[in-house]
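C-alpha cells in:
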C-alpha cells in the first residue's frame, strides 16, 4: 500500500515571515499518520529556517530546483551538497516552469536525479504534456519519454524511491484540472512505463502525484483513483488552512 504524498509548491511566493508563519501553523496540525506525507517546497532563502522549524515533526522541506554539480563556478546556482547539508529531504526537478522558462531539459533532469540520490535527496520529477500535445494525442508518448529519460541509469531501488509528479501543463495555474479519470489514465501509463524499464515490484512502489489546479474541492476524487498517490499543489498550498485540508484528504 503506497502512502499519499502531498507537496505544496510555493513557487516564487511569500516573504520569510509568511513562510515561517505558515510552517508554525502547519506543524502542530498535520495528521499523525503513516499513510500521508506532507512536504513544503519553498524558495531557497527559507529552507534553512523551515528545516529548523520542522525538525522532529511530520513536515518535510523540499527545494524547488538545484544544480547537478556539487560546487564550482555556477553563479546563482544551488548545489545538492548545500541542500543535503541544510537537512532538506526532497527536491522538485523538471517542473514545467523550469523546462519552459529556464531551459531545463530531459538531460539536465536526469543528471539532477542522479545527483539527488547521491546526496540523499528524494527527487520529485515533474512530467506533463502541453495542450497542443494533448490535442494531437501525443500525451502518452511524450510523458513516457520524459519519464524514461529522467530515470535513465538509476538502480531499481532508486527508481522505487523517486516521486513522479504528472502535471499537464495546460492545467497549471489555469484553474483547469484534468478529470480524475484522465489524470489516472496517464498516471497508470507512467507506472506501466516504469514497469517496462524496471520490474513490476519497483513500479508498484513508485509514488505518482497529480498536479495542476489541485484544491480542497477536488483532492478527494483525485486521491480515490488507483494510480494517483498524492498531489503537487500550486496556489492552494499557499494558505495553511487549505494545505492542511489537502493533507487531511490523504489519511
Ligand atoms: C500548479 O498546480 O500550479 C503547479 O504547478 C504545482 O507544481
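Residues out:
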Amino acid at each position: 500500500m503506497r502512502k499519499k504524498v502531498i507537496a505544496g509548491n510555493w513557487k516564487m511566493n511569500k516573504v520569510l515571515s509568511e513562510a515561517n508563519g505558515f510552517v508554525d501553523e502547519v506543524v502542530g496540525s498535520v495528521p499523525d499518520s503513516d499513510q500521508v506525507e506532507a512536504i513544503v517546497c519553498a524558495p531557497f532563502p527559507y529552507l534553512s529556517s523551515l528545516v529548523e522549524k520542522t525538525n522532529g515533526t511530520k513536515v518535510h522541506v523540499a527545494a524547488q530546483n538545484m544544480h547537478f554539480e556539487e560546487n564550482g563556478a555556477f553563479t546563482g546556482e544551488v548545489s545538492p551538497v548545500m541542500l543535503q547539508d541544510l537537512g532538506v529531504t526532497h527536491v522538485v526537478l523538471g517542473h514545467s516552469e523550469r523546462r519552459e522558462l529556464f531551459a531545463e531539459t530531459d538531460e539536465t533532469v536526469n543528471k539532477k536525479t542522479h545527483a539527488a540520490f547521491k546526496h540523499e535527496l528524494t527527487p520529485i520529477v515533474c512530467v506533463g504534456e502541453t495542450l497542443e500535445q494533448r490535442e494531437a494525442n501525443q500525451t502518452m508518448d511524450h510523458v513516457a519519454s520524459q519519464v524514461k529519460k529522467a530515470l535513465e541509469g538509476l538502480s531499481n531501488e532508486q527508481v522505487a524511491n523517486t516521486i513522479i509528479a504528472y502535471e499537464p501543463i495546460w492545467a497549471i495555474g489555469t484553474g483547469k484540472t484534468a478529470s480524475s479519470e484522465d489524470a489516472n489514465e496517464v498516471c497508470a501509463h507512467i507506472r506501466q512505463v516504469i514497469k517496462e524499464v524496471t520490474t513490476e515490484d519497483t513500479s508498484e512502489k513508485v509514488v505518482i502525484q497529480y498536479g495542476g489546479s489541485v484544491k480542497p474541492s477536488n483532492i478527494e476524487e483525485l486521491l480515490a483513483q488507483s494510480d494517483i498517490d498524492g498531489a503537487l499543489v500550486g496556489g492552494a498550498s499557499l494558505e495553511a488552512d487549505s494545505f492542511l485540508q489537502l493533507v487531511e484528504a490523504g489519511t
